[in-house]
Specification:
Layout lengths: L8 E5 L14 H12 L5 E3 L3 E7 L2 E2 L3 E2 L2 E7 L7 H10 L7 E7 L7 E5 L7 H10 L5 E6 L9 H5 L5 H24 L1 H8 L4
Parallel strand pairs: 1-6, 1-7, 7-9
Antiparallel strand pairs: 2-3, 3-6, 4-5, 8-9
Helix pairs in contact: 1-5, 2-3, 5-6
GO molecular function: peptidyl-tRNA hydrolase activity; tRNA binding
Main location: cytoplasm
Subcellular location: Cytoplasm
Length: about 200
């Protein structure tokens, strides 16, 4: 049901706008979209739905057929108001929620791990909460990029709005690569295969 490879997909990377936020943990979703655009020769341009978008094809299907058409989108609003741009893009490109995939930072997953799911709660993530409200459903796909919990008594809000630490930055390219791989697998092979591939402890 959610493994359809026909039709257009909307893949959204969450974050906050502006260079001061670009390296924050909260912006890892947008970093993943930059990786996907780089892989597939896409370049972002402003869209009227308050987002930067790039249209690409993800992956290659059996027989060498180019993979599904995908709109990569980075909302230009702040994280907590991501819903408007996502709903606007879904309406503009006529994409149903089961073909919307949101890439976001996840505190409840250790740094370096990636998980995929559809629906469920937002885990206190205000960007997801706003998207669920705007779409009128929680039944869209998510690639959850693990950033881990803050150390000691550091406030969660402070933690997500800080850049990755020195050790993390060395591993960050691998995390972005894995997350981009997960997006491609969800789109081309379906959620279940992606879960089997990325949820299994190596």
């Amino acid at each position: 049901m959610y493994a359809m490879t026909d039709g257009l997909w909307l893949v959204v990377g969450l974050g906050n706008p502006g260079p001061q936020y670009a390296g924050n943990r909260h912006n890892v979703g947008q970093m993943v979209l930059d990786e996907l655009a780089s892989r597939h020769g896409g370049s972002f341009s402003a869209h009227r739905s308050r987002a930067a978008v790039a249209e690409v094809r993800l992956g290659v299907l059996p027989g060498g057929v180019p993979g599904p058409r995908v709109v990569l989108a980075k909302p230009s609003t702040y994280m907590n108001t991501s819903g408007g741009p996502v709903a606007g893009l879904a309406q503009y490109f006529q994409v149903e929620p089961d073909h919307v995939l949101v890439v976001h930072d996840e505190l409840d997953i250790p740094f370096g791990d990636v998980r995929c799911k559809i629906g469920g709660g937002e885990g206190g993530h205000n960007g997801l909460r706003d998207i669920s409200k705007a779409l009128g459903t929680k039944d869209y796909l998510r690639v959850r990029t693990g950033i881990g919990r803050p150390p000691g008594r550091m406030d969660t809000a402070d933690f997500v709005l800080k850049d990755f630490g020195t050790v993390e930055r060395k591993e960050l390219p691998f995390l972005l690569d894995t997350s981009a791989d997960a997006v491609e697998m969800v789109v081309t092979e379906g959620l279940e295969k992606a879960q089997m591939a990325f949820h299994t402890k190596k």
